[in-house]
């Protein structure tokens, strides 16, 4: 079903896959105006912005409608719109600013009360009259009821961005026509309009341009915020949607210095503030991520190749923060495995054995589990900054480099944080390897032991089933136990034969990297099977070996 197939309220309910009675109940019995919560957030420029956010039962419907509107917009858009950059896929404040980079003149204009300009009648009328919709009066009315609060589009609803962009498409084309007449480039980011040019004659024409622009905006139902008109010349700092555009796209230097100062305060005191209020690590990571997004954008634009061992000074600041968050101030013991499937096995085993290991996992009354140990998620961000790639032992070796002061391959952030904070990390970081030590340096664990220059006693301890070795401060090495007299073991060896021989769609499990996919399935499918069926798997096959394997962590929780 498409929008042009929707003729009634019931059609719309079917289209959005919601019960017809539920839609009628929300519209006429519940009253959508009662399905919002209101709060204020501080503006950067001062004052407060009021947010009206829908409650979950209405938000779910609005999300479905928003997705449908985005699909419909993309399907019917004949020419790619490079004018609107807010709330658009693959668009951002960066793509908006890029168009105005390195220009002689940049003109910023803000619209007053942008969202409030889209009142109920305007929303309803758009869906009735727009050629890409031409909806019936009944359906257009219902859409306006579902998306408006107190008679206008609210900031905070998932449908407001797409509807404002749909209604503004004609306006954008009209403003572009005016801009071209004056040799200007034009973009819009929600209520921020930006015009730029290299034509020095524009200074003599700006009054005429402004009059035509103002007239067109008034005609479209908008009003310019006269206090926020900014004409920026090349010899001054030119800013577009918060980004400096004089040469490269960049953040304000003050923003970067503030972020770096916040991080320094965190490392030194264990806490920091944003705008005078205590903040958390995720907020600081968001600031670093924003700065890094611009760095990566410029590097890509300039053709610079990435190497996590040769980062810029700004990238080093983010790298340092990531080490602090994940390996120094980690709130729980963290286990880093060679492969991603190992995590699934460990989680499945702990869920199955939660009664035996309350120090590692607990079960809530609703059946959900709470892990008291974390498993490192090897994200693209960690790969980019710390070299922690998805599979293999190189990621674990790279982590060690940031702990050690005996290698030149990476800065010793452990030493830095110990010195600046005068405290030691509380929770351990456990690097977990397959037990292939007898193969020498060819396998990940042997290569790691050689790289970290562990002494003979540590190596002997692993061979004699010690399993856990303290490398440096809170960094530990953990190996899979050896079973059944095998010289080498990986984690799959801890399962009984009946589990390993389980067939899926007629195929048998093969743990090798290269195998015949027509006859076998690999580790990823097997790990999903184990995790989905953890209640039925016999995790006590190796009994005392597995017991010892888990108990190597328990001493950390008990402080013994």
Q: What is the secondary structure topology, with strand pairs?
A:
Elements: H1 9-15, H2 20-30, E1 36-42, E2 48-54, H3 56-76, H4 93-98, E3 105-110, H5 120-129, H6 137-147, H7 160-181, E4 185-189, E5 192-197, H8 202-219, E6 230-233, E7 239-240, E8 243-244, E9 250-251, H9 253-269, E10 273-274, E11 277-278, H10 281-302, H11 313-328, E12 334-337, H12 340-352, E13 361-363, E14 369-371, E15 374-375, H13 380-386, H14 394-403, H15 413-421, E16 429-433, H16 444-452, H17 456-463, E17 468-472, E18 475-479, H18 497-500, E19 508-509, E20 520-521, H19 523-532, H20 544-558
Structure in words:
With 560 residues, the chain is an alpha+beta fold. 44% of the residues lie in helices and 14% in strands. The chain has 20 helices and 20 strands. The chain has helices at 9-15, 20-30, 56-76, 93-98, 120-129, 137-147, 160-181, 202-219, 253-269, 281-302, 313-328, 340-352, 380-386, 394-403, 413-421, 444-452, 456-463, 497-500, 523-532, 544-558, and strands at residues 36-42, 48-54, 105-110, 185-189, 192-197, 230-233, 239-240, 243-244, 250-251, 273-274, 277-278, 334-337, 361-363, 369-371, 374-375, 429-433, 468-472, 475-479, 508-509, 520-521. The chain has a five-stranded mixed sheet with strand order 15-12-16-18-17. The protein has a four-stranded antiparallel sheet with strand order 4-5-3-6, with helices on one face. A hairpin with a 2-residue loop joins strand 10 (273-274) and strand 11. Helix 10 runs antiparallel to helix 11 (313-328) and helix 14 (394-403) runs parallel beside helix 16. The longest helix is centred in the first third of the chain and has 22 residues, at 160-181. The protein is globular, with a radius of gyration of 30 Å. The protein starts with 8 loop residues before the first helix and ends with a helix.
